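Q: What would this chain look like folded?
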Amino acid sequence: MIYYRVSTKRQGVSGLGLDAQRAYVEHFYHDKSIIVEFTDLQNGKDVFNRPELMKALTLCKERRAVLVAKIDRLSRNTEQALAIYRELAGRLESCDIPNLDKFTLPLLVESGN
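A: My prediction, written as structure tokens:
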């Protein structure tokens, strides 16, 4: 499952827009099966107030599927990013950072990737 998020129109120009996120996914996951895509169009401060992310997490848990996201679009808060990682039992992959794990995740979130 793929998760995308943008919060402003300006992000489309800055490289954080939906087209840019889709390009990352296409580049790294072109040969993998994608069940469904979820997109939130809102501020990213609190990951637990994003309806599409909540749907994605629920479906991932039900199907024991992997959630793929560009980490800086998933969260900029270490605790929230790790909570998602734990909730999915480690089934979180970054479309732009290979070999993501619970040790590198906090470094990437804090650095802004």
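The CA atoms of residues 107 and 113 lie 8 Å apart.
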